[in-house]
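Example record used in the benchmark description.
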Amino acid sequence: MSKLKVSFYVLSANKAQDFLGFICQLTQTALNKSSQSLIILTDNEERLIELDEVLWANDAASFIPHQRLSAEVSASNANSVAPVLLSQQLPPNFSGIVINTTARPVNDFIAATSNVLVSRILEIILPDDTSVAQGRQKYKYYQQLDYELTHFKV
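Model output (structure tokens):
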């Protein structure tokens, strides 16, 4: 069995100014390279609203089909609703790619009783001291789990 791949995207100050645009670009790239479902994890409701709006209006000629995960989206059909989900949690039966914009490692969102199968993790690191420190903590955590780690400065 191959190791879980975790990619860290360390944003420059310029890229961080267009954080939501970068998320759209990364999401579209992941969708183009894979047929798997994708979930964008975020810390708060405000960020979910912003992501929801920007994904619909990403490009004048297209949009990224997505849905905010809510109570009416049951755990059993979460992967079949839309190719991209937006949430503050991982649904129990999610299978696919995770874009993590939170301060915590993705494993913190996986309940012991769930059937979550994460195939790849994409971590976003902003160019501020807090985000960099959190990124280092997550890197060490994933390293201890023997995940395959890469990082990109963008």
